[in-house]
């Protein structure tokens, strides 16, 4: 009798695991880039004509570990209820910290 209950409980647990909705959590990793060199001045870019449903993300200097390289601006799909904060460098004492683009409410 106990064996039957064990297998029934195992079958119910397996069914619950198989048919339960998947978790909506996403893994996130935060990497902070801090360097002791200021980025060069921004490069002038002519912004292309507006695109419906997109916001313009201006170009920025990316640190390769040895030097800065320019990354061209691009259109980023808009998110309703959010505002876009483009990638930029922030002075933090004697160092420079890179802040990647993100969406804020």
UniProtKB/TrEMBL annotation:
Residues 1-25 form the signal peptide. InterPro entries: YXWGXW_rpt. Keywords: Signal. The keyword Signal applies. This is YXWGXW repeat-containing protein. It comes from Pandoraea thiooxydans.
